[in-house]
Amino acid sequence: xxxxxxxxxxxxxxxxxxxxxxxxxxxxxxxxxxxxxxxxxxxxxxxxxxxxxxxxxxxxxxxxxxxxxxxxxxxxxxxxxxxxxxxxxxxxxxxxxxxxxxxxxxxxxxxxxxxxxxxxxxxxxxxxxxxxxxxxxxxxxxxxxxxxxxxxxxxxxxxxxxxxxxxxxxxxxxxxxxxxxxxxxxxxxxxxxxxxxxxxxxxxxxx
Length: 207
Hints:
By secondary structure, the chain is α+β, with helices and mostly antiparallel strands. It contains six helices and ten strands.
């Protein structure tokens, strides 16, 4: 009969069992290792997952809060075809405040912000810029989620978006009557964004 545990390891000598300090120490180390190593691995995986999640959340917050280089500067010259193919100059809206919204039919957050844009359209003219989208898909999107736009321009290759510093869709800008960029938001316009960020700007514009 061979008895080994962390409290005593034994070796056979004649007819008697004698404790073996070397065997005892080794067995204790092995027993503890079989518990500690999986625990350490689990903690390491949990730590990496936690840091990854925090990085994603911080990155999202940073994108939303990152100031645009256009703030308090004239909006970029923007001449694009509309949905009918006619070239339209965003500058024609000067003389009144306007909200510019980059969107796409394939963009899930764009669908989420549709109700907020519908509310905003009752207070300020909204110019939508369809970003890297197909005309038929844009039409389906508008039919399903509503059309809050005074005009829709088509940035098919996304080149105009670069001049606006657009990272992705949706992104929203508010211009004053002189065409100066007062506000930029990356991400969907939620009710919170509407109430906390956009509402004060609209009030300052007398809207």
